[in-house]
Specification:
Elements: H1 2-12, H2 15-18, E1 32-39, H3 47-52, H4 54-57, E2 62-65, H5 69-81, E3 84-92, E4 94-96, E5 99-102, E6 105-107, E7 125-130, H6 138-150, E8 156-161, E9 165-166, E10 176-177, E11 181-187, E12 195-201, H7 210-234, H8 245-258, H9 269-291
Parallel strand pairs: 1-2, 1-3, 3-7, 7-8
Antiparallel strand pairs: 4-5, 5-6, 8-11, 9-10, 11-12
Helix pairs in contact: 6-7, 7-8, 7-9
Length: about 300
C-alpha cells in the first residue's frame, strides 16, 4: 500500500502530468464553481482552531486539511478530476513574515512547481492568506508575489494580515489582523504593470509597492548601521568590527537596486537569498556595534 501511495504521489506531481493538468480532464458539462478552504492540521488538536475556522470556511463548499505538499497537490488534482473550478479560497495556517505553513507544506519563495495547477483557479479570484504577519514587510510581499505568479498565474486578488491575526468571536468573526490592516495584491496578467499593491483597513492607501517596502527596509537598516558605526567611533571601539569600504558600497548598491520595480521582474531564488543574507549581516553588525562600550 505504501508503494502504491508513493506511486500515486509521484505520478500526480510529475511535470509531464502537471503540464497538461486541465487539458487532460474531459468536462463535457463544464466545471462546477466552488469555494475552498485549506486548513493547517493543528485544527485537529486545538478546539479554538476548530471553532475559529468555522467563520472563514462557513460558506466554503469544501474544507481540506493539508499536512504536506504532496497531499496539497493531490487535493488540487482531485478538484480538477471532478471538473470543479475554485472561485474563492482561504489558506488558514501559521505565518511569519515571508512564510505561510500548513503541516509540512511551507509556502515560501520556492513555488515555481505550483504554476501548472493555476488552471483550476478562476482568473482574478479572491484569496485570503490567513497566517500571522503574512502581509508584513518585504519578505511577505515576496511571498505574495511568488504565490500570485505561480499558483494563481491567471490573475488573483490576494490579501494577508499585516501583523498577528486573531478573532474576538471564534466561529462568528474570521481571523483579522490585530491592527485591522491587510496587505493586498492584485495581479492582472493583461495589464502593465501586472501588480497593484494596496493596504486596506482603518486607513486605505497603496501601502507602497514591493520596491518601496524592500528598498525602504534595506535602506533603513543601512541607516541604522551607519548610526551604530558613528556611535562605536565615539566610544573608541569601532576597531573591533570594521566593515570594508567595498562592502559598504555593495550594500548601498543593493539597496538602490531594491528600490526599483524592475528588480522584482525576475525574482530568482538567488536574489531572494542575497536580500535575506544582506539584511541578516546588517542586523548582526548593527547589534554588535551598538553593544560596544567606551574604552
Amino acid at each position: 500500500m505504501r508503494l502504491l501511495a508513493l506511486a500515486i504521489v509521484i505520478f500526480f506531481t510529475s511535470p509531464s502530468y502537471a503540464e497538461n493538468l486541465c487539458e487532460q480532464t474531459h468536462c463535457p458539462q463544464g466545471r462546477l464553481p466552488i469555494e475552498v478552504c485549506f486548513v493547517h492540521p493543528d485544527v485537529y488538536g486545538n478546539p479554538l482552531w476548530r471553532l475559529s475556522i468555522q467563520a472563514p470556511c462557513r460558506n466554503a463548499h469544501e474544507t481540506h486539511i493539508v499536512t504536506s505538499r504532496a497531499e496539497f497537490l493531490l487535493t488540487l488534482n482531485k478538484i480538477n478530476r471532478q471538473c470543479k473550478t475554485v472561485i474563492k479560497s482561504t489558506f488558514n495556517g501559521h505565518g511569519t513574515p515571508g512564510v505561510q505553513q500548513m503541516g509540512s507544506l511551507s509556502f515560501d519563495s520556492a513555488m515555481d512547481d505550483l504554476k501548472p495547477y493555476s488552471c483550476i483557479f478562476e482568473p482574478y479570484l479572491p484569496v485570503h492568506i490567513n497566517g500571522c504577519n503574512n502581509g508584513n514587510g518585504c519578505f511577505s510581499d515576496i511571498l505574495l508575489l511568488k504565490l500570485g505568479h505561480s499558483l494563481f498565474s491567471q490573475g488573483v486578488r490576494l490579501t494577508a494580515p499585516t501583523t498577528y491575526a486573531t478573532t474576538l468571536l471564534p466561529g462568528i468573526m474570521p481571523h483579522t489582523s490585530l491592527n485591522l490592516k491587510n496587505r493586498k495584491l492584485l495581479i492582472d496578467p493583461s495589464s502593465l504593470p501586472q501588480e497593484t499593491w494596496m493596504q486596506e483597513g482603518l486607513t486605505r492607501g497603496n501601502g507602497g509597492t514591493i520596491a518601496d517596502r524592500c528598498g525602504g527596509e534595506l535602506q533603513s537598516s543601512l541607516d541604522r548601521l551607519k548610526s551604530a558605526i558613528d556611535r562605536a567611533k565615539k566610544n573608541n571601539c569601532d576597531h573591533h568590527f570594521r566593515i570594508p569600504p567595498i562592502r559598504h558600497r555593495e550594500m548601498q548598491d543593493l539597496a538602490d537596486h531594491a528600490k526599483r520595480l524592475a528588480y522584482y521582474e525576475d525574482l530568482s531564488e538567488e536574489k531572494i537569498k542575497i536580500l535575506k543574507d544582506q539584511q541578516s549581516y546588517i542586523k548582526r553588525a548593527t547589534e554588535y556595534l551598538m553593544s560596544c562600550r567606551a574604552q
